[in-house]
Amino acid sequence: MSALLPIVIEPVRPEDLPAVLEIERASHVDPWRESFFVEELERPHALMLVAHHRTDRRRIVGYICVWLVADEVQIFNLAVDPALRRRGIGRRLLLAALQHACQRNARVALLEVRRSNYAAQQLYLSLGFRPCGVRPNYYDGLREPAVLMELEMDRIWRSRWFNGENAKGSEEGSC
Ligand SMILES: CC(C)(COP(=O)(O)OP(=O)(O)OC[C@H]1O[C@@H](n2cnc3c(N)ncnc32)[C@H](O)[C@@H]1OP(=O)(O)O)[C@@H](O)C(=O)NCCC(=O)NCCS
After folding, report:
1. CA spacing 20 to 30 A to 5: which of 49, 52, 102, 137?
2. How many A from CA of 97 to the centre of ligand 1?
3. Is 174 a member of any domain?
């Protein structure tokens, strides 16, 4: 991995959406339209965080969208500027969202990931997610299966990732 990029993680603002859309289109085979993000901004149970360069609030480098439902957090979207990958942004975004969810009493995190998406699966595995099922032909167009992954954020896991040495650099902003 290259050196960690100095970032701040904060809740998204409407003016961040053009930069978010640019990263979205560069990151996904079937990118979300702008209206999807606008809906996320309005949903009471949705949380969307952006990472921006520490010295420039307008320089968005990644984002994450999750839903907080009962004691679960569902991860729906995560992407990092292709030019800035492997600099710890994806992991810090994910940890920031999971920490926020834990503060709201979430104890289980769930997500779906394309079977061919090795990079994302490695990220999730590195944080303790485990595969827990497959949905055949989940993604339209490519008819690719989704791998379901689950993480139990028990006391030991929370202490490891939010209080221990792994917490260093996990979140540098306020959310
Ligand atoms: C998946 C994604 C968000 C990762 O973001 P990132 O900022 O590059 O990830 P990080 O630098 O935080 O990497 C954390 C860990 O994830 C794993 N990882 C990330 N990218 C990897 C890759 N290309 N190959 C192997 N492992 C990878 C590694 O374990 C890495 O730790 P290390 O660098 O110390 O080895 C990014 O690749 C991306 O935006 N992909 C396109 C969108 C996407 O697939 N989103 C997920 C949809 S489910």
Report:
1. 102
2. 16
3. no
Domain presence at residue 100:
yes
Which residue positions in the chain have pLDDT lower than 70? 1, 140-142, 164-175
**Ramachandran class of 134: left when φ > 0, alpha when ψ lies in -120 to 50, beta otherwise:** beta
Residue 49 lies in a domain: yes
Specify the residue with its C-alpha closest to ligand 1, atom 39.
79
Which protein residue's CA is at the shortest distance from atom 43 of ligand 1? 79
SS3 label, residue 13: coil
**CA Rg value for the chain:** 15
Per 3-state DSSP, the chain is made up of helix, strand and coil in percentages (nearest 5) of 35, 35, 30
pLDDT at residue 138, as a whole number: 76
Q: Residue 20 sits in which domain range?
A: 7-167
Q: How many domains does the chain have?
A: 1
Does residue 147 line the site of ligand 1, with CB under 6 A?
no
Q: Whose CA is nearest to atom 40 of ligand 1?
A: 79
